[in-house]
Amino acid sequence: LGTALDNLFGAFRDLANDLSNGAVRVSVRQDAVQLAQQLHTLDNNISSITGTARAEFNSTIDRINTIASQLAVLNRQIVAQGGPSHSAPDLEDQRGLLLDELGGLVDTRVLNRADGSVGVIVGDTLLVDGGVGQHVESRTRPDGTMGMGIVGDTRIVEVGSGKLAGLSDTINTAMPAMRASLDQFAAGLVG
After folding, report:
1. What Cα–Cα distance (Å) separates residue 47 from each residue in 50, 52, 123, 185?
2. What's the rounded Cα separation, in Å, for the pair 151 and 135?
3. Which residues, in sequence order, are bridge partners of residue 126?
4. For residue 94, what is the enclosing H or E element?
5. Fewer CB within a 10 Å sphere, N or C end of the chain?
6. Beta-carbon contacts of residue 106 (< 8 Å; ≥ 6 apart)
7. What is the reported pTM?
8. How big is the CA angle at 185 (ends 179 and 190), to the nearest 5 degrees?
9. Cα-Cα-Cα-Cα dihedral sign, residues 109, 113, 119, 121
10. Dihedral class, residue 144 (left if φ above 0, else alpha if ψ from -120 to 50, else beta)
11. What's the CA gap between 131 and 74, in Å, rounded?
12. Calpha distance 52→59 (Å, rounded)
């Protein structure tokens, strides 16, 4: 982009020194077209990155749902086989791995229950409680930003940290800021 801008300004300098030179006018036009194409390419790249982040956001939501369901099943199995005496170590190990994975996706808090099961809080919402796991979905807020909500509930769950928070920041903050900067740059060139 910098080179294209330098070329355009150089062509304008040449044109200012020789207004009647047709070749210089063609050069100005070509350099302007090249700069516009590069701006268009940057805009397309921002759209592509945003689209990829949205797809990954939705894929992460799917993985959270899978983990929540698996945790609920494991909780039921642990209670049935081991209960509070914790005599189901293999199941508890599986549950621990899933809890670790979930913690990498969203900010979680784990509540150990007396019966050997766990509750899992995501944001301010109980995602898993014993043998019951809720499902989440991606949501578009009124301002166009993306978030996560519990199916059947209208609230947006604040994910805090983890992969989903990073994707949310990319979609909701970083890419719109880049597009706004690009738009401001383009407007400054024109006006």
Report:
1. 5, 9, 29, 17
2. 6
3. 121
4. helix 89-105
5. C
6. 64, 122, 123, 148, 159, 160, 161, 162, 163, 164, 165
7. 0.84
8. 125
9. negative
10. left
11. 8
12. 10
Q: Is 152 exposed, middle or buried (0-12, 13-18, 19+ CB in 10 A)?
A: exposed
**Residues 75-117: pLDDT tens digits?**
999 999 976 676 788 999 999 999 999 999 999 999 999 899 9
- What percent helix, strand, coil does the chain show, rounded to 5? 65, 15, 20
The answer to whether residues 108 and 74 touch, using CB atoms and an 8 Å cutoff, is no
- Give one word for 132, left, alpha or beta, with left for phi > 0 and alpha for psi -120 to 50: beta
C-beta of residue 35 within 8 angstroms of C-beta of residue 8: yes
How far is Cα of residue 176 from the mean position of the Cα atoms in its chain? 12
Distance from C-alpha of 93 to C-alpha of 176, rounded to nearest angstrom: 42
Higher pLDDT, 109 or 3: 109
R_g of the chain computed on alpha carbons: 27
